[in-house]
Amino acid sequence: MKRQLYLAAGWVSVGLGTVGIFLPILPTVPFMILAAFCFARSSPALEAKLMNHPKYGHHLVAWREKGVVSRRAKWSATTAFLASALIGALTLSPPWSLLPAAVGLVCGTWIWRRPEA
């Protein structure tokens, strides 16, 4: 039962990470990191496939081995957070319009405090 829960959580994380490619508020790599974690506990073959992915594999390996985030990834995340905050400010009414900026500030601070590759 535990294995199936990890497997399901891994697939949900991959799905959310894929959606994150197109939506600025949803990050891609953290969901892929979570998917790798879940697949490591449920399906070694899926974990290996994710760790060897040509686009995300090196980010996952760097995070797993050293806990690092590349400078390019940091700037990409910051740009996505700023875009989300701007979209939220233009489309949401107060106080909800502050939520994307608050999330971006908290998450951006955490990301920029991670070591770089």
Instruction: Provide the domain count.
Output: 2
Number of helices: 6
Give the tally of β-strands: 0
Q: Give the helix level as a range of percent.
A: over 70%
Shape: globular
Q: What would you say this structure looks like, in words?
A:
By secondary structure, the chain is mainly alpha-helical. The protein folds into two domains: 2-66, no CATH class; 71-112. The protein is built from six helices and no strands. The chain has helices at 2-20, 29-40, 44-51, 57-66, 71-91, 99-112. Helix 5 (71-91) runs antiparallel to helix 6 (99-112). The radius of gyration is 15 Å and the shape is globular. 21% of the residues are buried. The mean pLDDT is 90.
What labels would you give this structure?
mainly alpha, 2 domains, 117 residues, DUF454, 72% helix, transmembrane, 6 helices, transmembrane helix, membrane, DUF454 domain-containing protein
Write a short abstract of this structure.
The chain has helices at 2-20, 29-40, 44-51, 57-66, 71-91, 99-112.
Question: What is the element layout, followed by pairings?
Answer:
Layout: H1 2-20, H2 29-40, H3 44-51, H4 57-66, H5 71-91, H6 99-112
Helix pairs in contact: 1-2, 2-3, 2-4, 5-6
